[in-house]
Amino acid sequence: xxxxxxxxxxxxLGYTAKAQQDYQFTHYMYDKLSFNPGYAGLNxxxxxxxxxxxxxxxxxxxxxxxxxxxxxxxxxxxxxLGFTYxxxxxxxxxxxxxxxxxxYHMGLGVGDLGIGISxxxxxxxxxxxxxxxxxxxxxxxxxxxxxxxxxxxPDINFGVFYLQxxxxxxxxxxxxxxxxxxxxxxxxxxxxxxxxxxxxxxGPDLKLRPSILAKSDAASTQLDVxxxxxxxDMIWGGVSYRVSDAIAPMLGYQNNDVGGGTLRIGxxxxxxxxxxxxxxxxxxxxxxxxxxxxxxPKPLQKSKNPRFL
Length: 309
Description:
Blueprint: H1 2-13, E1 46-54, E2 64-74, E3 79-90, E4 93-108, E5 111-126, E6 150-163, E7 167-174, E8 191-198, E9 200-201, E10 206-216, E11 221-231, E12 235-242, E13 246-258, E14 261-272, E15 283-292
Antiparallel strand pairs: 1-2, 1-15, 2-3, 3-4, 4-5, 5-6, 6-7, 7-8, 8-10, 9-10, 10-11, 11-12, 12-13, 13-14, 14-15
């Protein structure tokens, strides 16, 4: 398994980041569901995740993104179900994405494989006051969307995800059915995602957790590499590197006894390394995650040996 993860890491190192396509989060390791439906319910717990990101703080109209994920195993379906909602705003453009996911689970080696599909809707709108240099009304230019224009299209996605105690890896494709938003003169693009991560014990109190995420629309590719250390299953710290874009230190806290489940809270600050660094104050990424298991632990079986009565 270590060799497979290392191979994926080397593969993604060959990618070059050129532009942002879909939404992005520095806490991608806590958002596996939105881009890979195969993950739904695969961790055997009911989980909810909220992530908020303000990108390139200091810019007017800078990107802001909010995500909500909920997923759970469903035994009668031999898999899991999930729901994702994403609100993504950039300047005068707004995007809303809602997806329902189903994952079929099967054992594979010492872990579990999830084969998933999700379906939903993608809504995009533009609210702007267009100004042209020569005074020509923007409405006369067919390549420019009229202010107030909006579009709604279906969204289909597929993914395969493998999970065991220390290792995870997944590959997926989003926007498989990508009709054009003709009223906005916008063409949707398919996106392809690869992710992997591993947890390695450094001792009784420390766990090293490297991970990667690569996404591509076949025209440009973005790569995130993260490494963090968890101390006593309570506090973590680490850093992410987004190729040609940012370095992001992060801190987090988890409590394994909150209402019978585990609560995680994380914060990351992206230090911009691209040419935008002279104008941006960086990016803020905030994550809250809660997972619990409805299955009660099996009662401890006790017996007496007559030799010790």
